[in-house]
Amino acid sequence: MKTAKYVSADEAVSHIPSHCHVHLSSVASVPHCLIQALCRRADAGDVTDLHFHHFHTEGPAPYSEPKYEGIFFEQGFFVGPNVRKNVNAGYADYLPVHLGESQKLYRCGFIKLGAALVNVSLPDKDGRVSLGTSVDCSVAAIESADLVIGVVNPNVPYALGDLVSLDKFDYLVEDNTPLVTASFAEPTPTEVIIGKNCAALVEDGDCIQMGIGALPNALAAQLGGHKNLGLHTEMFADGLLGLIKKGVINGACKKIDNGKVVASFLLGSQEVYSYIDNNPSVNMRDIGYTNDPYIICQNPHMKAINSAVEVDLTGQICADSIGTRIFSGTGGQLEFVRGASMSEGGKSITALASRTNKGQSKIVAQLNPGAGVVTPRPDAHWIVTEYGAVDLYGRSLQERAKLLISIAHPDDREMLDRQAFERFGPHWHNLSL
Known about the structure:
By secondary structure, the protein is an alpha/beta fold. Helices cover 27% and strands 20% of the residues.
């Protein structure tokens, strides 16, 4: 059994060897004091060839900067705005993985971790700490790493769920840095309509999953009249918190984790972080649990609601890149798509505006060259824009094209119809649904 020792951030990171892989706790709960200490080591020429792994991170990301080329190498499981430029310039990299399987990369030894650096809460009376707003794959990292450093931070909420004993840590560092908070833009009129169209597919008693941002917030705003919704999700933010506090989301109809909100990481306001502190109705769990399709499908009437960059006329869904330019990552989209599809009465829903901000159609004859297919065409079911909702399940390629054109922007439909005719041939115009 380890007996963790409290040390300074600089001393703690001095034990991380060169030429190793390093895990960071992610999103709002990044251990920035340890990153800064590693930068000081790097500036002194005392460390080299560290590979960083994590979900997307908020705040400064010096481990992706060109100035540390050859010293740090970013290989995140998801690409956030703070590293996007450097990833696409080649100074950093993206490791494609379904987020639910990220923990498996550690546990099965595909990535041999030299160190795990995580933010944790103050310990409880039994010597256990919580990973707070970002459990993600950090439990697996703590189990697998040769060296485990915990930053004990009173700003990290003591979230119930997957807790960690202090004897798992080699070194502890005290820090009082507030967690990163985020606010999201008010939904546009288009997003409000999309939210209404999605909400029409959600029924009382359903269990839902959705992400964060203006579009999910627009959907959440339309669910206020629903009853007894459950929440089993990768992450949530303020839009869903309002529904939880109103009792719209209460988990009363969930078959597993009845009455509980289940998530793996959060990003939002301080109100969200405070809400999960010692709250028995919220379980923050390992990403291998939250994103497992066989867990997800055990709740009946699961409605997985995700977004896309573009959708082609056969139903291929791109959600991680703009052409060859990586924008985000695979995330847990396909895991929830399949979990919802396997759920009794479940639905997989993909929501997107019909056009980009530059007026280009997001429903396309073919995906941009290099675009990543996150959800393959057999898994694409409901597609929703501001012009309606269509179900592609059980539909042929030509039928899918007809349905998708019907919810494209009206000014793009003639172009798409012409492109479909060029692809499918003379029978196209005779096809009826």
